[in-house]
Write a structure and sequence with these properties.
The structure is a single chain. By secondary structure, the chain is an alpha/beta fold. Helices cover 32% and strands 13% of the residues. It is built from 13 helices and ten strands. Helix 12 packs across helix 13.
């Protein structure tokens, strides 16, 4: 069931904002909630700057008593984040050099990405923007004007991508302000929203958000971020159904993460569950090499073999493209699936 937004005369915020404000921020409290020993958690030094944040609705999907739960591993700070790794840094995909205005990135032809907010309902430990200087470079409300002016000036931009943080962390009224500004730019033909909130905080898909969506003048795509089939429960399915009914095209991108989803079995099941929820698999990203996330990396040879297994076990429309984002490239680099290795595995004697 989709929650309704409170009537304007009532002071209480909508449910999703209350849940976001009540998110777990203490590793010890999270450990207690899922029944693991808090003494087993060793937080990194970086946790002071990039701390734990995870909504209770996401925590409820974790396996109790399992410190290796794949949902827990995505959000729990680890001492391994302090390990120094060659080739890992603060700006792994060269975003700083692509800035055209505060928070506005233009890396690829025909589209621009607007970092609309730094707020997010969940702090994923592998986040490639975990060190992004939001206070200096994000296009928050006072600075949207400069970004909108640049989009209006550049008629090659026909698609605007809202990102963050998570753009759905903005209130419905602020989303409305932003979309009205974009609607005054005639050459913008599509809107894309990159969001994890319908997955980790499905209550965000309420009547207020759906009303905003119905008022948009463009074809709109939501690219969700779901990494594991256990992330999809009835609330998530209901949220996806409501988005589709409002006219949204739903795609999904995942990140290939060691010990989380580096298995063809897991990713095959993820594609099936996504499609059952009305979402098409889109991208499977190899890890962006941000400082503190090296322990999540999956070697490219294994990534390509897993992609080959997906291609051999799924219909083409359920196979996400395996990609890497590279600084200075004109598009994402598509990594070819290793079909031969997958075939040899399937033919190997038991």
């Amino acid at each position: 069931m989709i929650a309704t937004t409170m009537h304007p005369c009532h002071p209480q915020p909508p449910r999703w904002q209350l849940e976001m404000a009540a998110a777990y921020t203490s590793p010890a409290a999270l450990a207690e909630a899922i029944g693991i020993d808090p003494r087993s958690i060793q937080s990194p030094r970086s946790a002071a700057a990039f701390g734990l944040r995870v909504p209770a609705s996401y925590v409820r999907r974790m396996r109790r008593g399992d410190p290796q739960d794949p949902l827990l591993l995505q959000v729990l700070p680890s001492a391994r984040e302090d390990e120094e790794s060659a080739g890992y840094g603060a700006d792994p995909v060269g975003e700083h050099g692509a800035l055209r205005a505060p928070g506005l990135l233009k890396k690829y032809s025909g589209r621009a990405l607007l970092i609309a907010t730094q707020a997010c309902a969940v702090h994923c430990r592998y986040c490639f923007r975990r060190e992004f200087p939001y206070s200096d470079l994000a296009a928050d409300t006072p600075r949207w004007g400069a970004a909108l002016e640049e989009i209006a000036r550049d008629e090659s931009i026909i698609e605007v991508i809202l990102s963050g943080g998570d753009p759905l962390s903005l209130s419905d009224s602020r989303l409305g302000q932003l979309s009205k500004g974009l609607a005054r730019i005639p050459h913008v033909r599509r809107l894309r929203v990159h969001t994890r909130q319908p997955i980790v905080l499905p209550s965000r898909v309420d009547e207020g958000l759906l009303a905003w969506i119905r008022g948009l003048r463009w074809p709109t795509v939501f690219v969700l971020h779901c990494n594991h089939p256990n992330e999809i429960d009835d609330e998530v399915r209901d949220a996806c159904a409501a988005l589709r009914q409002a006219g949204i095209t739903l795609l999904n991108q995942s990140v290939l993460l060691r010990a989380v989803n580096d298995s063809a079995d897991v990713l095959v099941e993820l594609s099936h569950r996504l499609f059952d929820a009305g979402v098409l698999p889109y991208y499977l990203h190899v890890l962006d090499r941000v400082r503190g996330a090296a322990h999540f990396d999956v070697p490219e040879t294994l990534a390509r073999r897993i992609a080959g297994e997906l291609a051999s076990r799924l219909p083409g429309y359920l196979v996400p493209r395996l990609v890497r984002e590279e600084h200075g490239a004109p598009a994402k680099t598509i990594l070819p699936p290793d079909i031969e290795a997958a075939t040899s595995l399937s033919l190997a004697p038991e």
